[in-house]
Amino acid sequence: MIDAILIDPFDQSVSKVNVKNELQSLYEVMQCSLIEVVYLPSNQLFIIDEEGKLKKNRWFTIGANSYAGRCLLVDDSPEGEFVSSTADIDSIANMLYFEEEGFHEEPKMFFTPLN
User: Fold this and answer.
1) What is the percentage of the chain residues whose pLDDT exceeds 90?
2) Where are the beta strands (DSSP E) in the chain?
3) Model pTM score
4) Which strand ranges, in their side-by-side order, compose the sheet holding 59-62?
5) In contact, 4 and 17? CB cutoff 8 Å
6) pLDDT (0 to 100) of residue 87
7) What span, in angstroms and rounded, lies between the C-alpha atoms of 49 and 32?
8) Where in the chain are the domains?
9) Terminal alpha carbon distance of the chain
10) Deepest of 36, 56, 83, 89, by most Cβ within 10 A of its Cβ?
11) Angstrom distances, CA of residue 34 to CA of 8, 42, 52, 100, 104
12) pLDDT tens-digit profile of 34-78?
């Protein structure tokens, strides 16, 4: 089990959750079926809904980036494993903004030729 910070734009909350470090448990907490890992500074990771921007979803913004759906914040171990978050929950809550219902950004996709 790991302690993570759950960012939930549906009820506009930031809370600590205890979750099994297993894929199915992450899906259940995030209420999604596919995840993506976003690497952040200081060995922290966002676990986000890979398909979040493709669905009708609630959004939140942190810094210059917007995310759709629920998100877990965890730490990254030297072995590349998810470990309990050491982030301060109040600091995280103060850094983000919950977008208005109906907010949407078009997903961006870039192709880079290999020639």
Assistant:
1) 79
2) 2-8, 13-19, 35-40, 44-49, 59-62, 65-68, 71-76, 82-83, 96-98
3) 0.89
4) 65-68, 59-62, 96-98
5) yes
6) 95
7) 6
8) 2-98
9) 45
10) 83
11) 17, 25, 9, 24, 20
12) 999 999 988 999 999 999 999 899 999 998 899 999 999 999 999
- For 43, 44, 81, 83, 85, the CA distances from 78, given in Å and listed in that order, are 9, 11, 7, 10, 14
CA distance 99 to 6: 16
Q: Is 109 exposed, middle or buried (0-12, 13-18, 19+ CB in 10 A)?
A: exposed
Let me know: does 32 contact 51? Beta carbons within 8 Å: yes
Q: Cα(27)–Cα(54) distance, rounded to whole angstroms? A: 17
Dist CA 19 CA 21 (whole Å): 6
CA 35 – CA 21 distance, rounded (Å): 13
Residue 106 reports pLDDT greater than 90: no
Tell me the two tokens of residue 58. 């609630």
